[in-house]
């Protein structure tokens, strides 16, 4: 079970305890918003590359006379960004556990912004030949490093500021930054379609400069994690978080890796590959595909938060098991819907794929993964597990394309089934961190705190009552 430090007696309104109070820190909402905004921006940048890779990059940065090869190379470039994310997760996690969560948040956002704007300014294959693809790969590597460092810091900041009873809800808010970023990225690409030519894909990347400036300002105002400050005050910072978590917690890393693969690799097939599939098979044009993704993303904002909040009531594992089972069963029905070529069917396919399959898993991961690891190695452990899966998911569109070339649509459909089966197995093998016993323990701590500090106890009771608990 996650460490639960009971705070000392109420220090008064002017000086909140430096230890993590059960009801969360005074800045918990501001931290959740700041983490969510940063996640939105980084997702806009990173996912924007996936949209462009599916719709434009096969002919922009690679020879246009062989569309299939161009698509394979484009998705391979997309995969490289995912492949280096574990390294970014290792670096960001190590620094997050050594010097703090906040510096990593600011640095990763700045690095991502610079790389994304550069993509919008890159020369094309027609201008410099093969060097266009080389430059695209280099910038994509920087994107991958930044995105790999981002998640652990953002989630852990939110998790460690949040009320113990609402960690699913608060980390769900941070995770909801991803569908917001996806929505904005699709909106930008949809709005830029009328521009035509290279501007249709350049403008969305160049617009990232505005988002980055806003995000940096917000994140600079976010307070450091209280649990990290506590570890620092106690002199309990891990000397080498990476070696320690690999030595003591490698099983949880493996479990979380398998859990994560189902979500992110499933998304890579059901959204990223499907975007290319719809266009190449002339089942839907770019406008319909992007509109369907936008609708699913908009619904996914509330869905992600809702799934996270649900885990606070019923536990992490039941919600995750539901999501993996739906994913397991969804592969063939998904392509049967898409193959009708009707706009309604395409929208429905994206909504189920994203708001149910993907969001039911993503909304749980922030709290569940964080609770699997001790505070002193939490950023490293959670980040490593989360980002290692990117190696698989990043190349999944490439695998799906190859399967489609060899077996038709049934190939990628069965690939979704395989990922769902992996998720079901991993869910059953991973311990519940917020079951009935854990919830009862927190209730007992709340009662103890109420007796020690009537003022704070009344506030915690009022918040619990307001939330319907």
Automatic annotation (TrEMBL):
Keyword presence, Ribosomal protein: no
SUPFAM superfamilies reported for this sequence: MFS general substrate transporter
Matching Pfam families: MFS_1
Listed transmembrane segments: 70-92, 104-122, 128-148, 169-193, 199-218, 257-278, 290-310, 319-338, 344-364, 384-403, 409-429
InterPro entries documented for this protein: MFS, MFS_dom, MFS_trans_sf
Membrane topology recorded in Swiss-Prot or TrEMBL: Multi-pass membrane protein
Region listing for Disordered, in residue ranges: 1-23
Boundaries of every Major facilitator superfamily (MFS) profile domain copy: 31-435
Subcellular location: Cell membrane
Chain coiled-coil ranges: none
Keyword match Nucleotidyltransferase: no
Entry keywords, A to Z: Cell membrane, Membrane, Transmembrane, Transmembrane helix, Transport
Descriptive protein name: MFS transporter
Lineage summary: Bacteria, Bacillati, Actinomycetota, Actinomycetes, Pseudonocardiales
